Amino acid sequence: MTAAKLEVQNVTKIFGGLTAVRDFSIVVETGQLQGLIGPNGAGKTTCFNLLTGVYRPDAGKILLNGKRIDGRRPSSITSSGIARTFQNIRLFRDLTVLDNVRVACHLRARHTLVGALLRLPNHYRDEAHIRAHSIRLLERFGLLDRSEELAGNLPYGDQRRLEIARALATDPKILLLDEPAAGMNPAEKIALKELIRQLLKDFPVGILLIEHDMDVVMDLCDRITVLDYGQIIATGKPEEIQCDEKVIEAYLGCPAHSVEEAVQKDLERGTDV
Amino acid sequence: MTTLFIQSLLDALTLGALYALIALGYTMVYGVLGFINFAHSDVFAIGAWTGLLTSSLLGLSIVMGSQTVEPRGWEIFLVIPAAVLVCGLLAWVIQRLAYAPLRDAPRLNVLITAIGVSLLLQNVGQLPWVFGTDPRPMPRLIENPLLFEIQGVQVTLLPMLTIVAAMVLMVGLEVLIFHTRFGRAMRAVSMNPKVASLMGIPVDRVIDGTFVLGGALAGAAGVLFAMEYPTVQQPASNTWVLLGLKAFIAAVIGGIGNIRGAMVGGFLIAFLERFGAAAQQFFPGIISFDTTVYRDVYCFAILIVILLVRPAGLFGRSVVEKV
Amino acid sequence: MIRSIFAPLMVLLIAIGVHGLVGRYDDGYWINQLTIIGIAIILAVSLNIVNGFTGQFSIGHAGFLSLGGYLAGSLLYYGSVMFFQTRPEPGFFSFTQPFDRMDPTIVWWGIGDLFFLCVCLSAGLFAAVAGLIVGLPSLRLRGDYLAIVTVGFGEIVRILIESSQRQVPLSRLNRADGWDLVTGWGSAMGFNYIPKFGSLFWVYLFVGITILTAIRLKYSTHGRAYLSIREDEIAAEAMGVRSTRYKIQAFVISAFFAGIAGALTASSQGTINATELAFMKSLEIVVIVVLGGMGSVSGAVLAAVVLTYLPELLQAETFARYRLILYALVLIFVMILRPRGLMGTREVWDVFRRRRGVQG
After folding, report:
1. Which residues contact A101 (CB under 8 A, 6 or more apart)?
2. 3-state class of B108 per DSSP?
3. What distance in Å separates residue A56's CA from the closest CA in chain B?
4. In the predicted model, is pLDDT for residue B236 greater than 70?
5. Are B189 and B207 in contact (CB under 8 A)?
6. What's the angle, vertex CA C57, arms to CA C54 and CA C62, rounded to 5?
7. In degrees rounded to 5, what are phi and psi of residue A61?
8. How confident is the model at residue C360, as a pLDDT?
9. Neighbours of C224 (CB within 10 A)
10. Subunits with 3+ C-beta pairs closer than 8 A to C
11. B320: which chain A residues are within 8 Å (Cβ-Cβ)?
């Protein structure tokens, strides 16, 4: 498997008068795990929507392995190798867990409609292949014993994991995860971190991760990009981001040194009493 | 030729005013709830019936083709409000019983329910002990004197009155929506019901109010329609279903959810229908087929063209679904 | 290989069985009833492919029915003269009456039967092309636009047929008239004296093919793509499902079978009338689909049987008046109480399987 490279160059998206994303650039390669963080409303999910074709960028380029993919339909972008999960889970709720993954495998099917209707040999071959692949994925994510349940009936944590399994079923080169740890309890979060690390080893993908939980982001990511008001305010290794003045200001709403001073003062006052 | 043109123009304006009034009801409901209220055209039909029945209560009825009592002029001021009241109430009842339980359901379900309500109203009305299926003549509510004549076209009071009344109602609605507290609440709900309710707007009451408003307009349109085309028949035939559909197309063409769009759309559809129907007379040598037969076809054809070129309608903005 | 052709063979055998048994023992009543029920099944199951599987909302199915019916009617009426100079006699499989009225010299399989098969397929293809033309602009848009466009389409078809020319009497027809007369569809009077080929064999053959198609679709990659669009179009796109393409595909398949149902209607009743196939007819099919379950093939079949035969059981005259009111209430209550219809997406066998699963 050759390495894949997603390049985003100066992408801008404007809604009415509001610039949701301005000059967003990032490079994600196979084997990397990058984080995209920022306060609420910073434009993170909009970035994902731009990358996956839900929105069309107003300016800039998106390239996958040197080929432009911006302006294409979401399905075409997925088939070229970018898959995603959704912040507000979007499973096919009335389909079974297995069928959710099988839908995502459909790019693997080579037979035509006529093949399916006449039940030609290639239909059976594809179906068997898809089924086996889906079951392997479900097993990998610990969801196999629930495969016949309706996706909408799964517990929350399982739904999140099913979303990742479903995205992986499209054989992505780049995987975009939108807040995979949201709503999980600490134990589940630790398991999720382990799972994502393992994914990176087992599958030839590069991962771009949106996450609010700093624990998860700082632990997992090789590199972090911080957005605020639609603009990149910092990029770098987790430890660099942690002590970046601008990032702290964006999160706390005031410069870091003033926080430190305030804390210092509090401490001094504390010692006084 | 000029005569024909002016006649078609007059017809189109009258019909357009009525289409616009009905279209407003569709567009308002679509604006706040996002579904096609298929039952709206049946509320409109009930408006016409209320007009007919209250007129006969007031002594105005038609026996053997001639009117028993000449209109005294004041009846219309009772008949129209009665229809407005009945239809407003009916719309409220429909909203409470059929649509309110489906507030959080997928839109498809609400759409099917709306079709069910429409079917119900139509067929209950067709029962012999309700309205029956026979057409009934609508009595005259006002005299219809000749106002003036241009190029051989006699312009009488009634069409003018219809146009003026429709205009007044539309301006009233415009003021209500853009210059009152209720209107502001309505616009807020149409943008985002969840946020609106967080801001303290009573969403349920606003939605009810929207239905009542739409129903009331349909009621008024029903009476005006029956006065202009004085036969009332429970929609056993396709004519009234078509009427509702055309008003709906007007709303779509104008940009569904857009109040002004619905008004423009109503007139546009009426112009297309009337001038399309008269096309053979305008171009006697060129068009050899009978164009009046196809007047409904034009409306649907323009709908498809608009959906192809500008899916959001002439005045609508395309909405991007949030992911 | 065996599993691929086993079901089609069964369909063929069942169609022959129904035709043979009912034709042998019936005096005409059941032939008529079963024909009507069979056509209702084809319509319901095919509409379910759009409304139930892909979650789009078409309410113009009767328009495709009309198109197929009138094309079949004109091919059978005018075409048989043009191709054969006379009406080709129906063979055993196209015999629409009880067998005791059968001419003993009847052939098992004649050229007329082959002709009728071709007519059915052309009617289906004609409707499918119309479906493509209607679907292309409207299926790119949100679901409820399709509803309006299909209503509009149904009405346009009705108006165009009603404004067609008078029917040309067969006695005045000859081969030389060519295709000029084929548009003589009898205006609002309906198209009459269509040669009868629509026997129970053909009806149940196509019932079987429709059901088989729907089920094979549902349990295949393509059908799962349809269902995913119904569940969440944005997520489906994100999984690489080309939603517009699949929606159009489903719509065209559905129109194809509606066209065949039209051909069967025209050739089993001997007459077809667009005025009767207006908006209300489309709504009746919608009611069947909604009641049976959006996405459930067996549900649609059951609902079609029940709702078609129920008026017959409940004495047609008194019931006719309240039938549509009942339908309306069914629509409203099913939507409020069971939003996906009685069966939902499940099939009859799923219900049993689940129950067994719980016990075991």
Report:
1. A134, A137, A138, A162, A165, A166, A169
2. helix
3. 11
4. no
5. yes
6. 115
7. -130, 145
8. 31
9. 26
10. A, B
11. 15, 55
**Cα gap A58→A67, rounded to integer Å:** 18
Q: Give B323's contacts in chain A (Cβ within 8 Å).
A: 45, 49, 54, 86, 90
Architecture of domain B2-309: Orthogonal Bundle (1.10)
**How far apart are alpha carbons A32 and B304 in whole angstroms?**
49
pLDDT tens per residue across span A183-233:
888 998 999 999 999 999 999 999 999 998 888 898 899 999 999 988 999
The count of structural domains within chain A is 1
Q: Which chain C residues are closer than 8 Å to A103 by Cβ?
A: 224-225, 227-228, 236, 239, 241
Three-state secondary structure call for residue A28: strand
* Residue C224 contacts A where some CB pair is shorter than 8 Å: yes
pLDDT tens sequence across B100-150:
988 878 777 888 899 899 889 988 888 888 888 788 888 888 888 888 888
pLDDT at position C327 over 50: yes
Q: C-chain residues within 8 Å CB-CB of A121?
A: 1
Give the contacts of B256 (CB within 8 A, at least 6 positions apart). Answer: B26, B27, B30, B31, B313, B316
Percentage of chain C exceeding pLDDT 90: 47
Cα within 13 Å of Cα(C128), Cβ side: 15
Nearest to A246 by CA among A227, A265, A220: A227
DSSP A96: B
**Residue in B closest to C133 by C-alpha:** B304
* Listed residue (C311, C285, C336, C346) closest to B117, CA to CA: C336
Q: In which residue are the tokens 């009916």 written?
A: B90
Q: Tell me whether residues C239 and A121 touch, CB distance under 8 A.
A: no
- Indicate the Cα dihedral angle B54, B60, B64, B65, nearest 10°: -100
Count residue pairs from A and C with Cβ separation < 8 A. 103
Answer whether B320 sits within 8 Å of A55, measured CB to CB. Answer: yes
Q: What is the mean pLDDT of residues C146-157?
A: 86
Listed by start position, the domains of chain C span 2-278
* Chain segment A100-136, per-residue pLDDT in tens: 999 999 888 888 899 999 999 999 999 999 999 999 9
Inter-chain touch C331–B106, beta carbons under 8 Å? no
ipTM: 0.88
Tokens of C351: 């219900």
The more confident residue out of C190 and A77 is A77
Distances (CA, A) of C259 to C60, C91, C262, C269: 12, 23, 5, 15
Whose tokens are 């409020």? That residue is C336
Minimum-distance CB partner of C237 among A73, A109, A118: A73
Which amino acid would we find at residue A94?
A: D
Burial of residue A65 (number of CB atoms within 10 Å: 0-12, 13-18, 19+):
middle
Chain B residues touching residue C337 (CB < 8 angstroms): none
First-to-final CA distance of chain C? 33
**DSSP of C302-343, one letter per residue?**
HHHHHHHHHHHHT-HHHHHHHHHHHHHHHHHHHHHH-TT-SS
| Inter-chain touch C152–B304, beta carbons under 8 Å | yes
Tokens of C238: 């994100």
Helix pair B181-191, B157-179: axis angle to 10 deg: 70
Of the pLDDT bands very low, low, confident and very high (cuts 50, 70, 90), residue C177 is low
Specify the 3-state DSSP secondary structure of A61.
strand
- pLDDT above 70 covers a percentage of chain B that reads 96
pLDDT of residue A102: 95
